[in-house]
Amino acid sequence: MELQVGVKVFLQNSEEKYLILERNLDKYTDIQKRSAWDIPGGRIEIGLPLMDNLKREVSEETGMQISEPSRLIAAQDILRSDKHVVRLTYVAHAEGQPELSEEHVAFKWVSLNELKTLENLDNFAKEVLELI
Question: Has residue 2 got a pLDDT over 80?
Answer without folding.
Answer: yes
